[in-house]
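Exercise 7.
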Amino acid sequence: MAKLLGTEVSGHRIDRYWLHTGDDGKDRITVETIEDMEPILEANKRDMNDAPGRFEKKPDVRRVARIPGVTIMEMCRLNKIGFRELMLAKSDRAKQIWDRFLNDSTLRGFRTSPGRVVMGAKR
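Solution. The predicted structure, written as tokens, is:
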């Protein structure tokens, strides 16, 4: 049985700290993070609707996505990559993860502008 140790609320994010016993019989602390993504997805939808068309001249640097923190943490966990490496996006591995994520049509709710994102990873 788990015991709630505490809760922290920061904006649309809630962190809950749980004490429980692991399979080895030792006490463990687990952090449960919940984030309300609806405001982010709605803002992204507005930005996408206001974005210039694909074939218009575009600046060299622009926002292409707004991604909740818990989603980035899950990307790190699933891809077994450190947060710093992923966010710096200098390694080919990190660039491939971003390319895959940002161009996945099922995740288009995170995008804020149309088009294909190319991070420059070797393929």
